[in-house]
Amino acid sequence: SDQVYDERIQQAKDRLSQELVIMGHHYQRNEVIRFADFTGDSLELARIAERQKEARYTVFCGVHFMAETADILTDDDHIVILPDMKAGCSMADMADIDELEEAWEVMQEEWGDTIIPVTYVNSTAAIKAFVGRHGGTTCTSSNASGVLKWAFSRKKRILFLPDQHLGRNTAFSMGIPLEQMGIWNPIQGDWEEIKGSMEDIRVLLWKGHCSVHTKFTVDQIKRVREQDPETKVIVHPECTFDVVQNADENGSTSYIIQQIKNAPAGSKWAIGTEVNLVQRLAENHPEQQIQLLSRTMCPCLTMNRIDRPHLLWALESLVEGQPVNQVSVDPETTYWSRKALERMLSIV
Ligand code: 13P
Ligand code: SF4
Hints:
The protein is built from 14 helices and 14 strands. The chain is an alpha/beta fold. The longest helix has 17 residues, at 331-347. The relative contact order is 0.17. The chain binds 1,3-dihydroxyacetonephosphate and iron/sulfur cluster. Iron/sulfur cluster binds next to loops. Catalyzes the condensation of iminoaspartate with dihydroxyacetone phosphate to form quinolinate.
């Protein structure tokens, strides 16, 4: 039963004591996140991983790219475990290193040495390493504009991957018009859309997206406002351009949490992000009226794969001294992806 699982998880945690750190992303289920020593958005969790010096093990309750990032940023002998290896991120899977090498070549031919690559942390370690090797960096949804500003101080053009929406929304908020953004289709290995002239292009958007956040629509915003004009709409910048433009506010997971925390009692919100987080916010803030922007649930299925049985299995494997599901990035990839991540951590 759930109670037996909870007891055994707690026992394993107690046995491992200082040797273990459990990290939990805000999109995790309640049943899992309650055991986390640290919770956060992806930037906060990366910063926490960087500081882990005492513990031998991190059990990462999140998705694969986050566990890779933790492995890259911790010492070589630190072991990072992902309780379910099937907890990937469909957006990260949309940028393949071979596709990137091919795209980079085409772009170099067009624009020579005027491009700097920036990857959203929602990408594989191989992509991060490519970016590190080419003088670029990573970003998260909470520091994207600071990172793009830094990148524009170095080069005229930015290749942004894998999320076209975060790239477009952030660049637009910095004053770059849509005509100065092109979309690269990695599957066709060709441009999908270039509105202005090639010379004027400033941002090269990789055609990737988040299947959870792109489910929010402008119609949903209209419906909420028709029902109650006082309800504020706040969405994650992985939502489409139109949704972000029509929302009252947009920001990273932590930004959304902060805005709700700071709002006066009686505030009304419709939130466009992962449903576990929205439900938790509603539970933690009964003094406010909080609803999910869409009528249908929109869980991140891979985040939700981490449940009690997987967490217990991972912890007990450590107690037994035979770790399962270790996420381990090879030394060469670690070297370059770490450069990319460290650049980000020093910029913002
Ligand atoms: P945050 O950077 O806001 O934690 O988002 C991570 C993520 O996967 C959003 O879908
Ligand atoms: Fe990836 Fe979207 Fe899930 Fe975030 S919510 S982990 S971007 S699929």
